[in-house]
Design goal:
The structure is a homodimer. Chain A has two domains: about 10-135 and about 315-435, Alpha-Beta Barrel (nicotinate phosphoribosyltransferase); about 195-275, Alpha-Beta Barrel (TIM Barrel), CATH 3.20.20.70. Helix content of chain A is about 40%, strand content about 20%. Chain A is built from 16 helices and 19 strands. Chain A has helices at about 10-20, 50-55, 60-70, 80-85, 115-120, 125-145, 165-175, 185-190, 200-205, 210-220, 235-245, 255-270, 285-295, 305-310, 390-405, 415-435; strands spanning about 25-35, 45, 95, 100-105, 110-115, 150-155, 180, 225, 250, 275-280, 300-305, 320-330, 330-335, 350-355, 360, 370-375, 375-380, 385, 410-415. Chain A has a seven-stranded antiparallel beta sheet with strand order 13-12-1-5-3-17-18. In chain A, strands 7-6-11-10-9-8 form a six-stranded parallel beta sheet. In chain A, strands 16-14-15-19 form a four-stranded mixed beta sheet. The two termini of chain A are about 45 Å apart. Chains A and B meet through α1, α3, α6, α7 and α8 of A and α1, α3, α6, α7 and α8 of B.
Chain lengths: ~425, ~425
C-alpha cells in the first residue's frame, strides 16, 4: 500500500529499463547528504528501520497497477511490464550506517545494490524516510547537548508536517537523546517513553484555576504537573504550592521563563516542596535552552516542540540518492554526474571512521584495524541480515558514538577512490565521443 | 488506527474530564494561526478533507486501549473510562473554511463544537493536518503567482518530512494552483495530475547520453522530456534536438538556467522544434521563479520541490486550537487565556469577508448581505453535512477566491465580540477572586 508513494519518474524509468532489457543489470545507489546545514557540527543517521520495513513490504497491488496503466506517461507500456510489477519484490542488498551514527556531508549513509529497477523505484521513499528522521535527530542531538543533562521531551506533533511526521519526529528525537515524546503513537509503535499531563484548555475548562489544579492532582497524584501560566504565572505557582503534595512539579509555557522559574522555585521551596520540579516549554530551540541553562535558571526539564519537529532553522537536508556503478553480467561501469554544482564520485563506497578523521573509500578497501567501516550489511538478497536494534538501543548507540566522536573531523577521499574516479572519467569521455 | 497519533495530554485530560463528570459539557474549540509568516500576504486553508476523514473514523482499538492502560500517567484511571473510550465516536459539529479559502492571522479556519472530551482528543491531529497543508498551500500560491501562467509541478516528496507528508504536500500544492505533482500516490488517492519522466540516473544507466535519449523517446513518444544537464547542458540540448520529434521538450536541473534556457531554445528552434518546451527545476522557490520569468527566459514550466514541500522559509505555522467557550446544560462560560504574549478572545466566532476587509465576530452575528460567512457547516452531530468537494474543485475555488481577494485587507474584531470579551473578563476576574 506504499508502493505509489514515489515520484512518477521512478516508475517511468522502471518501465523504460524493462523495455530496454535492463532487468539483469545490477545497480549500486548511494544515499548521502550534499551539505550539512549551519549550526550542525554533524548529522545523526535515523530512519533505517522504516526504510527497511518499506523495502521488505514493497508490493504493487492490482488496484494500484490499474491506476498506473491509466496514467498518461505509462499508457503505452506493454503488458509484460505490468506482469513484472505484479511479481515485484525487493531482492537486493542494503548497507547502512546504524541509526544513531554521526555522519558528515558526502558520506553515504545508506547503499542499495540491487537489480536496476528494484534499486530505482525506492529512491523517493528512502530519501523522504532517511533524510527526514536524520534531520530531526541532528537537531535533537544539539538540543539535548544544550540541555546539559536536563531531560528534553519532544512536543512537536501539532506543528509537524502531517500527523505521521509527528510520530516519526518523536522517534528520531528519542534516538538522538530526548527522554521521550508527547506523541502516544510513537510510544505505542516504538516503545518510546511518553509524557503529557494537561494543557491550558484543562485549566480553562474549570470555573477557576484552583479547581482545575485540584482535579489534576486527584487524577495524577505524584505525576501531577501544573501548567501555571494560563492566567498569571506567579499566582499559578502559589496555587500549586498551596495544594502541596503529591505532585511532580510545575510547567511554564510563556513569559520570561528565567525570571519566572526563579520566582516559582522560591514559592515552591517556601512551601516545603524542594523536590517539586520545574519544566519549561513554549517555542524553545537549542539556543534558548542554552541561554536558560547558562543563566542558571532552576529548570529541571524542557519540552521542545515546533522547532525540533520541523528542524525550523534547516527544515530539509540536501539528501540525494545517486547511481554509483552498474554491473552488467560481471562487468562494471562506473557512473558520474558532473553538472557544474553537483559533481559526484563514481563507484560503490565505504566510510571508514578513524580516531581523528573519516575516509570515504572504495567499498573493498581495508584500511586497517584502526578504523571502523560505518556501512554495515542490513539486507542481503532481499532479507534482513539480523533484527534491527529498535529505537531504544539505537539511542544508547547514538549517545556512545557521539561521546567518542573527536571534532573537528576532516573527511577525505581515499587514494584508491580518487584513482578510480580518474580512470572512470577518462573512459567515460571516450565513450561519449564514440557515440556522438 | 490513528487514535493514538495525539499528544498524551489530550488523553490524560480526557480521563480527567471523565473523572470530573464533564462528559455532558459542550466545548467550542477554534483552530487559527497566530501570525502569518513574512512573504505570505495571506494563507490558504487546506487539509479539511483529511481532518474530517480522521474525525469520521476516530476509534480506539482494544490493543491501543491496552497500551494506554499500561502507560504511566493513565495507570490509575478507573475502568469506566476505558469503557467510555471503547465506545468513543466523534459526535460533534465542525465548521470550517472550505479548502482553498484565503485567510489571515487570528481568523478561525476550523471550529469544533462537541462534548468536551470529543473536542479535546482531536486537537493534535487536527492541528498537524490543517496547519501542514495550509502551510504548503500558502507557499504554493506564491510560487504559482510568480510563475505568471506557466505551469508549476510539485516535485518535493523526497525532501518532505516523511513519505506521507510528501503525498499531502502534493495535494496542498495542487489546491493552491500547481498543475500537478510528481507524487504518484497523491494522484491515486486524490485524482491529481501526476508528472515525471526520467532522472539523471536514467541517463547514467546507458552507455551514452544519446542512447539514453533514444530509449526514452521510444518509451514516451510525445511525452518525452529529455533531462539535458547530466554531463553538459548545451551538448544535451543538441543531442535532444538531433533526435527530433516526437518529444514534449527538455528539462534543465542545474546551472545558469536563464542563459542555458536561451541557448537550448535556439538549438531546438534551429532544429525546427519550435513547439518543443523547456522545463526548469532544481532548488527553485518563488523568488527564483520570479527572476527567471522577469528575465524573459524561454521557460514553459517549473518543477519546484524541496522549498515548496517543506515551505523552507517558514517551515511551520503558528497554528493553535483554543477553547473559546463551554456550554454546561445551556449555560455558557466564555474562556480566556491571557498570558502576556498569547491573549485569545473568548466566545464562538464567525469570520465575515467584506469586499475590502475581514471581520471576526460572534458566531451569531448577521452583518448583512455584503459579507460572506467563511466558516461553513461541515459536520453536524458527527456526520458530514455534504460530500466535500475534493482536491480539483477546491483548486478551482481557490483560484477564484484569490482572484477576488482585494489586498491589503484589514482584519477587525466586531463590536459585539469586543463587548462579549469585556463582559467575560469582568466575570472571570470576580470568579477567580471568589475561588482564591
Amino acid at each position: 500500500m506504499r508502493a505509489l508513494i514515489t515520484d512518477l519518474y521512478e516508475l517511468t524509468m522502471a518501465a523504460g529499463y524493462f523495455e530496454a532489457g535492463k532487468t539483469q543489470e545490477r545497480a549500486t545507489f548511494e544515499l548521502f547528504v550534499r551539505k550539512v546545514p549551519e549550526n550542525r557540527p554533524f548529522l545523526i543517521a535515523a530512519g533505517l528501520e522504516q526504510a527497511v520495513d518499506y523495502l521488505l513490504q514493497l508490493r504493487f497491488e492490482e488496484e494500484e497497477i490499474a491506476y498506473l496503466r491509466r496514467s498518461a506517461p505509462l499508457r503505452g507500456v506493454p503488458e509484460a511490464f505490468w506482469d513484472y510489477l505484479r511479481g515485484f519484490r525487493f531482492s537486493g542488498d542494503v548497507f547502512a550506517m546504524p541509526e544513531g551514527t554521526p555522519f558528515f556531508a558526502g558520506e553515504p549513509v545508506l547503499v542499495v545494490r540491487a537489480p536496476l529497477i528494484e534499486a530505482q523505484i525506492p529512491e523517493t521513499y528512502l530519501l523522504a524516510t532517511i533524510a527526514f528522521q536524520s534531520m530531526v535527530a541532528s537537531k535533537a542531538v544539539r538540543v539535548v547537548e544544550c540541555a546539559a543533562g536536563r531531560a528534553v521531551i519532544e512536543f512537536g506533533t501539532r506543528r509537524a508536517h502531517s500527523p505521521e511526521a509527528g510520530v516519526l519526529a518523536g522517534r528520531a528525537a528519542y534516538i538522538a537523546g530526548c527522554a521521550g515524546t508527547s506523541n502516544v503513537e510513537a510510544g505505542y509503535r516504538f516503545g518510546i517513553p511518553i509524557y503529557g499531563t494537561a494543557a491550558h484548555s484543562w485549566v480553562q475548562a474549570f470555573p477557576s484555576e484552583r479547581k482545575s489544579f485540584e482535579a489534576l492532582q486527584s487524577l495524577l497524584g505524584e505525576g501531577t504537573v501544573y501548567l501555571i501560566d494560563t492566567y498569571d504565572t506567579i499566582e499559578g505557582a502559589r496555587q500549586a504550592a498551596a495544594l502541596g503534595r503529591p505532585l511532580w512539579g510545575v510547567r511554564l509555557d510563556s513569559g520570561d521563563v528565567v525570571g519566572l522559574s526563579r520566582e516559582a522555585r522560591k514559592i515552591l521551596d517556601a512551601a516545603g516542596l524542594k523536590d517539586a520540579k520545574i519544566m519549561v516549554s513554549g517555542d524553545l530551540n537549542e539556543q534558548k535552552v542554552c541561554e536558560i541553562v547558562r543563566a542558571g535558571a532552576p529548570v529541571d526539564a524542557f519540552g521542545v516542540g515546533t522547532e525540533l519537529a520541523t528542524s525550523a532553522d534547516a527544515p530539509n537536508l540536501a539528501a540525494v540518492y545517486k547511481l554509483a556503478e552498474i554491473d552488467v553480467l560481471g562487468i562494471k561501469r562506473y557512473t558520474w554526474k558532473f553538472s557544474p554544482e553537483k559533481t559526484t564520485l563514481p563507484g560503490a563506497k565505504q566510510v571508514f571512521r578513524f580516531a581523528d578523521r573519516d575516509q570515504i573509500g572504495c567499498h573493498w578497501e581495508c584500511p586497517g584495524p584502526n578504523s571502523e567501516a560505518l556501512l554495515k550489511p542490513v539486507m542481503i538478497g532481499g532479507r534482513l541480515v539480523q533484527e534491527l536494534p529498535g529505537a531504544s538501543r539505537s539511542r544508547d548507540y547514538c549517545a556512545q558514538a557521539v561521546r567518542r566522536l573527536a571534532l573537528p573531523r576532516p573527511v577525505r577521499f581515499s587514494e584508491d577512490l580518487l584513482a578510480l574516479a580518474e580512470r572512470a572519467r577518462v573512459k567515460f569521455d571516450s565513450a561519449q565521443e564514440r557515440s556522438s
